[in-house]
Amino acid sequence: MSRLAIYPGSFDPITRGHEDLIRRSLAFVDRVIVAVAVNVTKQPLFTSEERLALIREAVSDTRVDVRSFDGLLVDFARAAGATVIIRGLRAVSDFEYEFQMALMNRTLAPGIETVFLVPAFDLTYLSSSLVREVARFGGDVSSLVHPVVQQGLKRKYGR
Ligand code: PNS
């Protein structure tokens, strides 16, 4: 039986850290759906269409599907037939929110297990918000994101 995981997030934009977690997930599941949340509470820099397009260009593995979702993550996961939700844990500061979310998702959908993955050591400090901030002020993000994302950031910030 093929095992499917959902890797949800805002991906505003996708970073090398996200790419690393997708690769790591494929070591123990057969397919991954990268699920881009449309209605994120924070005002995103990239539209959901742009975020989807950047992920599709940055991730070429045929075992990875990229989709957007609206509403509850567990509803989307159930409808897709996923049994695993992937989330990254970078630092202790991530833990409280992630723990709450995992327990809430388990309450809503007991058959779906959240699996936390730790990114590569040199990517643990990385986040989309830091990437946006560095790019906004003209800093070099070439080692932090795929070249298409770097281009996208240049277009947004005009530098
Ligand atoms: O990359 P992010 O912003 O940390 O991702 C958070 C996300 C999108 C995974 C989370 O906010 C989410 O699952 N939103 C969908 C709505 C939902 O199911 N909320 C209840 C989670 S307990």
Give structural notes.
It is a single chain. By secondary structure, this protein is an alpha/beta fold. It is built from six helices and five strands; from the N terminus they run E-H-E-H-E-H-E-H-E-H-H. Helix content is 42%, strand content 18%. The model has no long low-confidence stretch (mean pLDDT 96). Bound molecules: 4'-phosphopantetheine. 4'-phosphopantetheine binds next to strand 1 and helix 4.
Chart the SSEs and their pairings.
Blueprint: E1 4-9, H1 16-25, E2 31-37, H2 48-58, E3 64-69, H3 73-80, E4 84-88, H4 92-108, E5 113-117, H5 128-136, H6 147-157
Parallel strand pairs: 1-2, 1-4, 2-3, 4-5
Overall shape: globular
The level of helicity is 40-55%
Bound compounds: 4'-phosphopantetheine
Unreliable stretches (pLDDT < 50, length at least 5) are none
Main-sheet strand order equals: 3-2-1-4-5
Largest sheet: 5 strands, parallel
Structural class: alpha/beta
| DSSP E strands, number | 5
Q: What is the helix/strand order?
A: EHEHEHEHEHH
> Distance between the terminal alpha carbons, to the nearest Å?
48 Å
Note the beta-strand portion: 15-25%
- Report the C-alpha radius of gyration, rounded: 15 Å
Instruction: Write down the overall mean pLDDT.
Output: 96
Total of helices: 6
Attribute tags:
single chain; 159 residues; alpha/beta; five-stranded parallel beta sheet; 6 helices; 18% strand; globular; binds 4'-phosphopantetheine
